[in-house]
Amino acid sequence: MVSTLTAEGIGRAVWSGAHWLLDLVLPPRCPGCGEIVGTLHSFCPPCWSALEFLGERGCLTCGIPLEATDSGTCAACLARPPRIARTRAAVAYGDISRKLAIRLKYGRKVAVAKAMARYMAPLVGTTGDALLVPVPLHRRRLAVRGFNQSLLIAHEIGRSRDLNVIPRALRRKRATPPLKGMSFSQRRRTVAGAFVVHKGIDIAGRTVILVDDVLTTGSTANACARALQRAGVARVELICWARVVRPPQFER
Q1: Per-residue burial over 33-60, b = 16 or more CB atoms within 10 Å of its CB, e = otherwise
Q2: What is the pLDDT of residue 83?
Q3: CA-to-CA distance for 145 and 177, rounded, in angstroms?
Q4: Per-residue pLDDT for 202 more than 80?
Q5: 51 within 8 A of 43, measured Cβ to Cβ
Q6: Where are the domains of the chain?
Q7: Could you confirm whether domain 52-243 is CATH 3.40.50?
Q8: pTM for the model
Q9: Position 89 pLDDT exceeds 60
């Protein structure tokens, strides 16, 4: 018993020493600018102050920041309830949040997904039997990039909140061009019918939380929600890293 405890103690000491050495050689850095910080996946003071954290202070349904009002739901959601029952974003889209999304998608800095998930996970409101489903890439884009950034984020949130991730629940059956620069109506037409639920995936009656990195007009998320609801999903929610909040116009 003494020798076993001694071996366990030595193992812990070696493990701690290895982590100390790694921190010494590769200290944690700010995911926004690369400056050395105190803890992993945290921001330096300048990047932190440049981020606009949204949290739970917006519309109870779509999450858009609200002007001074007694209502917890924005006028747009009251007039026309959206397909997605609850939308939350960690931060507003800006210089730093955009930089993180670019570093993850195009710079292949996959550790950035952990930083994003750290601030997204507390905003997951539905637990229990909810399923995390990443917004999928088309197979050609996935082959070029090598990974789906939304899936990386979903896995990190799943581990943090003890939720199951269904990587292949949705399939992007048609390649679509980049939506940047398109009008709201053009975006909606471009992604209409682009997503389907994989055959053999039984998600009828479940709550699905879509996971994405950036939300602009909501066209892509709305198209995903439509496909999920056609497959019998009872409730669709969305969580993302950053969202455009100015102007406050989103697809329904």
Answers
A1: eeeebeeebbbbeebeebbeebeeebbe
A2: 93
A3: 15
A4: yes
A5: yes
A6: 52-243
A7: yes
A8: 0.83
A9: yes
